[in-house]
Amino acid sequence: MKVILVDDECLALDYLERQLVKLNNVEVLGKYEDPMTGKERILLDLPDVVFLDINLPEVSGIALAEQLLEVRPELNIVFVTAYDEYAVKAFELNALDYVVKPIHPERLMKTMERIQKRLDSFAKDKERTVQLVKNANEEQHLVLQLLGQFSVEFSGKKDAAIRWRTTKAQELFLYLLQHREQLVRKSILIDLLWPDNGTEKIYAQLYTTVYHIRKTLDQFGKCFHIANTTEGYILTLNQVVLDVEEWERGIAAAPPLAAATLAEYEKAMNLYRGDYLKDYDYWWAESERQRLKRLWLNTSYRLEAWHVEHGQLDKAIAGYIRIIEEHAQAEEAYFALMQLYASKGNHLMVNQQYSALTAVLMEELNEQPSAYITEWYKEWKSSVSAL
Could you tell me which residues carry 4-aspartylphosphate (predicted)? Predict the structure, then answer.
C-alpha cells in the first residue's frame, strides 16, 4: 500500500511515518510540509492513500482534498486533525477516515485495515468489470437507445436497422418494450392498436402482428423472447442494454453531489440524449416521457445550482442553456441565466434571455413570464439605469 503524508508540522510527519512503517505492506512514498508540493507529488506518484492534515498554510486540507478528488475520485484520503469538529466536514467530502492527534497506534491500525478492505473491494470490482466486458464481447449483445433518436447497436455494429413490416408492428413492439417483463393483456393491445375495429377478425390481426415482430427480431438471436399466454404477452430481454435503464440507474445510484462525485453525475447526465421516444407520437408513451423529463430537469437544476454555489459560472451557464434547448418553456433556466449574466455584467444577454422567455411563452402558452421573474427584471433594469 503506497502512502503520502502532508502536514506542516515536521515532528507530526516523522511520528506518523514511524508508526506507518511498523505496519506490514505499507510504503511511504514521501512526506511533505508544503501542501502545493505535496499535491504535485500525489498527482505524479499516484499513491493509494494520502494522510492529509486539515490545518495547512496557504490552503486548508479540506480544499486541497477537494482539488485532489476532482482529478482522482478513487483516491483514499485520511484527514489528520487536532479537533473532532472537523470530522463531519471530512465525511461530507467523502473522505475515507479521519484520525485525531496525537495518533494512537491502535487507531491507526484500524484505519489501515479499513483502507485495505476498500482497496481489495476496488480490485475485485475492477476484475469483475473486465470479465463482464470480456463476456459481452464473446456473446451477442444489443444496445437500444430510447432517449432521443431511437437507434440500435448489435454486437458492436452501430445503427443496426430494425425494418418493421408495418407501423402497427413497430408500435406494438415499443409498447411491449415499455412494459417489459410484465404481462400485457391482449385486450389492452387491441384497444390500443385497433380501437375502432370489430372483434371478429381483430385477434387474427393481433396474432399476425406478433408473428411479424418475432420474425423481425430473429436477427438478434436470443436477445428478445415474446411469451404467449392465454391472456396476453410477456416480452423478456437477454443481453439487451437499454440506455434509459442505464441512465436512470446511474442517477439513482449516484452518491451525494460533491466535488468528488461530480464526474459521476456529469457522466450519467450525458446519457440523456433527448426525450424518451421523442420521434414517436404515441399517447401511451407520454406519461413515461414526462416522468423521465422531470427526473432529468430536477437533476439538472441540482447540478447547475451546485456549479453556481462553487463559483463554476461558465459550467452553470452551459448547463442552463442545455436545459432550454431540451425544454424551451423552462422558466427557471431562463431566470437563472438572467441572474448569472447580470452577475457578470453582461446586460445584453440578460435582456436577450428575458425577451426569449417572453416570446416562447406567448407563442406556445399565450402567457407572460411569472411575476417574480418580471419583478426581478424590472428591478434589475432600474438598478442598471441608475448607474
Answer: 53
| CATH code, residues 2-128 | 3.40.50.2300
pLDDT tens digits, residue range 323-343?
Answer: 999 899 999 999 999 999 999
As a whole number of angstroms, the distance between CA 153 and CA 330 comes to 33
Percent of the chain whose predicted confidence (pLDDT) is above 90: 53
**Residue pair 346/384 in contact by the 8 Å Cβ criterion:** no
The residue to which cell 443496426 is assigned: 160
The set of residues, in sequence order, having a beta carbon less than 8 Å from that of 301 and lying 6+ positions away, is 323, 332, 333
| Distance, CA of 349 to CA of 204 (rounded, Å) | 60
CA 370 → CA 327, 358, 375, distances in Å?
A: 17, 10, 9
**DSSP 3-state of 369:** coil
**Is the Cβ–Cβ distance between 30 and 4 less than 8 Å?**
yes
Cis check: omega of the bond before 102, within 30 degrees of 0: yes
94, exposed or middle or buried, with CB in 10 Å at 0-12, 13-18, 19+?
middle
What gap in Å lies between CA 223 and CA 19, rounded to an integer?
56
Residue 313's pLDDT is 95
Helices (H), the chain: 10-21, 35-45, 61-71, 87-92, 105-138, 167-178, 186-193, 202-217, 243-253, 262-270, 286-309, 313-326, 331-343, 347-365, 371-386
pLDDT at 224: 94
The three grid cell numbers given for residue 340, joined into one nine-digit string: 448569472
* Low pLDDT (below 50) residues in the chain: 85-94, 129, 132-133, 136-138
| The pLDDT value given to residue 293 | 93
pLDDT in tens, 202-211: 887 888 888 8
Q: Quick one: fold of 158-298?
A: Arc Repressor Mutant, subunit A (1.10.10)
In this chain, the answer to whether the domains covering 2-128 and 158-298 adopt an identical fold is: no
C-alpha distances out from residue 289 to 148, 178, 180, 275, 299, Å: 11, 11, 16, 6, 15
